[in-house]
């Protein structure tokens, strides 16, 4: 989606209202208007980046630093029982707004969220081969 039509870019530019929690020169954190739980918020880079692949390492660090600050604030103020950080890239990963964003989702005992991922034993040979392929990229 082009920057001019991106809902998060419009929020960053002040063209759409938001409930801001934190802002600095490179990032913005605001409440999700379709919250999964009480306190669900989003951290976005101010620059339009569709996904993590378009972001520099510095931009990723900026988002993660703000995510940590907001997560600490949520923990101290709302006292959730846990917290999920969620970030999706692409349709197959269920990305719905094509501007990079990190979800901060406070978790509460008996909240309605049920994650579909169920860990199961992996094939150690396949895991080893994949680790070698990925590690070779850094060598």
Summarize the structure.
The chain is built from three helices and five strands, in the order H-E-E-E-H-E-E-H. The chain has 139 residues and is of the alpha+beta class.
Structural class: alpha+beta
- CATH homologous superfamily name? HIT-like
> Can you give the mean pLDDT?
90
Number of helices: 3
Residues in β-strands, percent: 15-25%
CATH class: Alpha Beta
Any idea what the radius of gyration is?
A: 17 Å
The biggest beta sheet is recorded as:
5 strands, antiparallel
The main sheet orders its strands as: 1-2-3-5-4
Q: Report low-confidence residues grouped into runs of 5 or more.
A: none
**Total domain modules:** 1
β-strand number: 5
- Shape estimate: globular
Question: Would you give an account of this structure?
Answer:
It is a single chain. With 139 residues, the protein is an alpha+beta fold. The chain has a single domain (3-138), classed as HIT-like (HIT family, subunit A, 2-Layer Sandwich), CATH 3.30.428. The chain contains 3 helices and 5 strands, in the order αβββαββα. A 5-stranded antiparallel β-sheet has the order 1-2-3-5-4, with helices on one face. A hairpin with a 3-residue loop joins strand 1 and strand 2 (27-31). It is globular and about 50 Å long. The mean pLDDT is 90.
């Amino acid at each position: 989606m082009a920057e001019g039509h991106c809902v998060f870019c419009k929020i960053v530019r002040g063209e759409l209202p938001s409930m801001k929690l934190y802002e600095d020169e490179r990032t913005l954190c605001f409440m999700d208007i379709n919250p999964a739980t009480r306190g669900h918020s989003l951290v976005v880079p101010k620059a339009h980046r569709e996904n993590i692949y378009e972001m520099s390492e510095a931009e990723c660090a900026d988002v993660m630093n703000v995510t940590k600050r907001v997560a600490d604030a949520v923990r101290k103020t709302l006292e959730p029982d846990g917290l999920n950080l969620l970030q999706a890239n692409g349709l197959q990963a269920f990305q719905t707004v094509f501007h990079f964003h990190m979800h901060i989702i406070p978790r509460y005992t008996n909240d309605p969220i049920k994650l579909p991922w169920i860990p199961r034993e992996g094939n150690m040979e396949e895991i080893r081969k994949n680790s070698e392929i990925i590690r070779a990229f850094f060598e």
